[in-house]
Amino acid sequence: MRLTIFATHRGRMLGALASAMTLISGCASIRRPPTTVDAIRRDAVPINAEHRALRDTVIERLVRRVAKRGDRTVDVLMLSGGGQNGAYGAGFLRGWQQRAADSMPRFDLVTGISTGALQAPYALLGTRSAIDTITALYSRAAKSFAPSLDWWFWVRPTGGLVNTTRFDRTIAQTFGGPLRDELRAAFANDQQLVFGTTDYDLGIGRAWSMGDELGTSRESVERTQQLLKGATAIPGIFPPVMIDGHLQGDGGVIENILPLLAFDDYTRLGERLQARGLTEVSVRVWVIMNLWTHGEPKVMKPSSRRTISGRSTSLLFYAHQPATLAALENLARAVSAGVPGMRMQVRVAAIPSEESIFPGANSLFERRFMQRLDSLGFAKAQSAAPWDTLPLNAFTRPDVPPRLR
User: Fold this and answer.
1) SS3 label, residue 25
2) 10 Å Cβ neighbour count for 165?
3) pTM score, two decimals?
4) Biggest CA pair distance of the chain
5) How many domains does the chain have?
6) How many whole angstroms separate alpha carbon 83 and alpha carbon 363?
7) Euclidean distance between CA atoms 11 and 345, whole angstroms
8) Domain encompassing residue 181
9) 209 vs 216: CA distance, rounded Å
10) Average pLDDT in the 353-364 region?
11) Annotated catalytic sites, by residue?
């Protein structure tokens, strides 16, 4: 998710509105059944239970995957949000998949937030064709799924400013034909895909298992498509969706990656593995950040309340990225030290923070910038050092580029 997109585009979109009043959008107003705050609060009880059950199911399937693999390894891929910056992740996955040595493994669990949720089905399959499809989606994003302005958002309120017809069509194509069958085969083999949304009503993140949602009926396919649409609904730009009586939007509002399992979950996983006679298991967590970990440097105008407000919102978003990654590192240390028979390691690849000031970085689906990110991700994955050593601290700036030293 890119909260800065709205601030960047608000002026030009509203300015263009006056000259395009005759255009009519295909978006429908969003409606919800009547409810109360007490009813929403009561819903938290079954929703919390569902989340616990989801994590239990993930653990059991991971146990079966370890038994099937035979190499006592669990491979988890986490794909972050980042909007158009998903082009970096697309390039990185392609470069990783094509490496001669230390190539991309077959993942047991893939989690995705926002643009990462769109990438996740293809990354789970992991084939050359699937990874190439991700690249193709982002390379033609401006034509294939970039939204257009909903000129009549003020007449038919949808919770967003854009017409997502093209985007909806792309999501529908994701679950059409062979890809849907390939995903079902992967799920039947206990591979898992979990993605996140933000429940605006409860003010929490929600995790959804695509393997459990994507059934064989048309209704289940349409529900999965709606969930993905909600998972990628940039606040104030893309319309949110109603799912089970709750308003769902971009998962990046709550957290920009989805770790899903906590220390207690890994403890239970270790116990279940040992009960099956599976010890000395290595958990490898691979994180692809479809964004930079620190906000872009700026020369601020001290007297401008508007720019200071916008900057504050942007920094609120970026400041928790280092903390999230540091928490993952700490989790890995705790699991390795405290769960018998299990070792855990984390590897992170993030967009270099200096890319944040490159022309097009604050645009919506800017073709040349996305091509640059794709090439950057591919080259990084193909390099001798594809994984980063990051300053996991909001009080430390990443290394200054050599040209400025």
Assistant:
1) coil
2) 15
3) 0.88
4) 70
5) 1
6) 10
7) 45
8) 34-382
9) 15
10) 82
11) 114, 250
